[in-house]
Structures are given as C-alpha cells and as structure tokens.
Design brief:
Elements (H helix, E strand, L loop, with lengths): L1 H4 L2 H20 E3 L18 H22 L7 H27 L1 E2 L4 E4 L1 H21 L5 H24 L9 H18 L12 E3 H23 L4 H29 L6 H6 L3 H5 L9 H29 L8 H20 L2 H4 L18 H30 L31 E3 L2
Parallel strand pairs: 1-3
Antiparallel strand pairs: 2-3, 4-5
Length: about 450
C-alpha cells in the first residue's frame, strides 16, 4: 500500500483534469462586451475586459506571489509553501470557474455558463479562500490532502455565497465575510479535526532570518494590491470608495500593528505581527469598502484591526493551541477576527441607509421586501449572512477534516519539513542558521 500511495495524488489530478476539461468544453462559452457599446460608465458591464483586466492582474499576483511568499516563514518548508500554493491555486481556479459557472452564470437558453473577465476575478477570490484554509494547516498535510480539501470546500463556499448574495442580499464588496471569514474558520476546523499531540513537539516549526525576509515579500505584495482585491468587481463611485477606503484602512492597520507590537513585546517589534497584522485593515474594511464611511471611518477600522490582530497573535494563539486548534499561520488573527469585524461593521453601516448604499444592489429576489427592503431589515440580513458563513464553514471543515484523517490520505511524514515531498539540492540548502525563533 505504501508503495502505491504516493501515486494517488497524480492519479487524482489526472482524473479531475479530464473531468474539468469535459465540463468546460461542453458547458462554457466566452462572453465579451465591446467598449463601443458602453453607454453608462457608472455601471459598466461585467464583460468589459479593458476596464476590469488591470485590477484582475493585481488580484492574480496576490494569489500566486502574495500568499505564496507570505507562507515561506517556516525554515524547512519554503519549497512546499510556494509549490503547494502554486498547484492549489491553479487547481482551485479551474474548479471555481466551473462551480460558480453552474450556480451564478448558467444560461438556461443554450445550457452553458459564461466565462468573462469577472469570472476569472471571482475564481481568484475563491482561490483566496482555499489558500487561507491552507494557512491554518500549513506543514501538517500533504499535497493530496490539500487538493481534496479544495475539491470539497469550493462547492460549499460557492453555495454559501450564492445564498448570501441572491436571497439575503448581504453586501460584501471586499469578500471579507464570504472569503476571509469562511476560509479562516473552515481551515481552523480542519486543523482541529486533524490535530495530533506531537505537533507541538516538532522542532521544525521555526523561522530564521532569511525565511522571515522572504515572507515579508508576500506581505508587501498583498499590502500594495489589496485595494484592487476589494474594488476588483466594482465600478463608478463604488470603485472610488473601495480603493480609497482600503488604501487608508490598510495603511492605518500598519500603524496599529506596529504600535501594539511594541507594547505587547515590551519595546521591540515581532516579525510575526508585521508579516500578518499589518494587513488586517484590508480585511476589516472589505464589507463596507464601497460605502460612504468617510476616511475617518476607514482610519478607525484599520487602526483597530491592526491592534486587535496583534492581540490575537499574542493572547489567542496560545489559547487555541491548548484546545487542540493548531493555527500554523495565525489565520484567525489575520482573516478570521478581522473578517468578523468587517461583518459587524457591515451590520452597523447597513442601518445608515444613505451612507451604506445597499439599496443600489437590491433585487426582486431579495427576501423580506425585495428592492423596498428597510435599513433595519438589511442589517438583520447582514447579520444572518455572517452567521450562516461561520456555520457553513465549521460544518464543511468538520466533514472535510474527517475525510482527510482517513489513513489512505493522512500525512505519514514529519511535519514542517520539505524533505518527504521534494527532491532537494545536495548541498546544505538551509544554510547557516544565524537566528532561529519560534513562530507563534
């Protein structure tokens, strides 16, 4: 069994690639909207590739470079961090195009779903969910388990978002609830189910000076492109609000993170906080990114997010370990808690009808009033969407974790080590370890 077990990964990819090829071949079609047909520049059509492509490329870079390098902090797991990020993201993009196509973009008249520039951007959003979940279990699972997790998680998340957008009509422009919160608590639940007592005893869950520098590359890429993530599918005044609010909020979270890190670490900075908590403002402002919250509102949201995220790393991370939740990358503090903050902010802002702008996004399919929904009702559905997202992510994580625990899939090798998964250079590729510190 052990002899053939290593080939299950290749066999699964081969079979799924054949399936995806047939599904895309029979049920997808291109859709292009010419620039010459545009008459309303405030509400641009989703197929306008010339308008949406620049921000799509920013989001694409975030997925492959930003997330990939952010996870390279482990001193003996950099190959796997970047490599598994690469294959997992590419696999998820294909699967997300198909699942979202059937649920969001199905054209019953010719029995096909459309593929346009926004389809590609939203597929990237789905890949972010999987990469966030990967962060919670980084170093403790193999590539096969990650592919299986993505295959299960994508449909659950797409159904959750479809209900939230089409029936609850809960606005979440920057996908803070549907992406960040879902991915974080799905991954943390999987981590809880897969917990092994020897994880805490591993001597390899450490960073070093050079691996932390590579991780900061990912941080800086994510920081620079986050306004595009929150504004990527918007247009008109909504895009102005999303870009500006995110720009200000994520800058404020840098200030908040540096400020709080020096307090909790007694006058010095902790690189873990700087790699992660500095980005929390981009998550926390996402749900209300297109709303007229004022730049002072964005400042408050970002500053609080940065400080609370640092406190999460300093206080909550050790507590989670004691209750059998081992969060390798601290996704609860970068994505989970800031995502909940964003959801709560959305509930509050929705009660201010004129500033929230939610009424522009309501349709007749919305429950409890359709286009005539009141502000208080909108706030209630924002809360319902947040609760549903957390509930579905935990349920999906439990089911997925139980599957990944099966002996045929479970990781048999040491945690946080590249050697079982990669052909490594003959020389001492780790180099001299000048400074090793435990990664919180």
């Amino acid at each position: 069994m052990v002899k053939y077990r290593s080939y299950i990964f290749s066999l699964l990819l081969f079979l799924l690639q054949i399936l995806f090829t047939f599904l895309l071949g029979f049920h997808s079609k291109y859709q292009y909207y010419p620039v010459s047909n545009v008459t309303n520049y405030e509400e641009l059509p989703r197929g306008l590739v010339e308008f949406y492509y620049p921000m799509f490329t920013d989001i694409h870079v975030m997925m492959f470079v930003g997330f990939g390098f952010l996870m390279t902090f482990l001193r003996r797991y950099s190959y796997s961090a970047v490599g598994f990020n690469f294959i997992l993201c590419a696999f998820t993009l294909e699967w997300a195009l198909i699942v979202r196509g059937y649920l969001f973009d199905w054209d019953a008249s010719n029995e096909k779903f459309i593929i346009d520039i926004q389809s590609l951007a939203t597929a990237d959003f789905v890949s972010a969910i999987i990469l966030i979940s990967m962060g919670a279990i980084l170093g403790k699972v193999n590539a096969l388990q990650l592919i299986l997790m993505a295959f299960i998680e994508v449909p659950i998340q797409v159904v959750n978002e479809w209900i939230g957008l089409h029936f609850f009509c809960a606005i979440d422009a920057g996908e803070s609830m549907y992406v960040h919160t879902f991915g974080a608590y799905f991954g943390l639940t999987v981590a809880f189910v897969l917990f092994r007592s020897n994880i805490h005893e591993s001597s390899e869950e450490k960073s070093r000076y050079s691996s932390d520098i590579f991780s900061m590359i990912g941080t800086v890429f994510l920081f620079c492109f986050w306004p595009s993530f929150n504004a990527g599918t918007t247009s008109g005044a909504d895009r102005l609000h999303a870009v500006t609010n995110t720009y200000v909020s994520i800058c404020a979270s840098v200030i908040g993170a540096f400020l709080m890190s020096t307090i909790v670490r007694r006058g010095k900075l902790d690189m873990v906080h700087i790699q992660n908590s500095t980005l929390a403002g981009g998550v926390a402002v996402g749900t209300v990114a297109t709303s007229n919250i004022g730049l002072h509102g964005a400042m408050v949201i970002g500053s609080l997010a940065g400080m609370i995220s640092v406190l999460g790393f300093h206080v909550l991370l050790p507590i989670l370990k004691r209750i059998r939740i081992h969060d390798t990358c601290g996704v609860n503090n970068l994505h989970g808690i800031p995502g909940i903050m964003a959801g709560i902010t959305g509930i509050i802002v929705a009660s201010i009808g004129d500033r929230s702008g939610y009424s522009h996004h309501l349709t007749d399919s919305c429950l409890s009033g359709g286009k005539d929904r009141s502000s208080s009702t909108q706030s209630a559905y924002q809360a319902a969407a947040l609760g549903m997202t957390i509930g579905m992510s935990i349920f999906g994580g439990l089911v997925t974790g139980l599957l990944l625990r099966l002996p045929v899939f479970a990781q048999k090798s040491d945690d946080f080590d590249d050697e079982p998964n990669w052909h490594l250079p003959d020389d001492d590729y780790f180099g001299p370890i000048d400074r090793i510190k435990t990664h919180l």
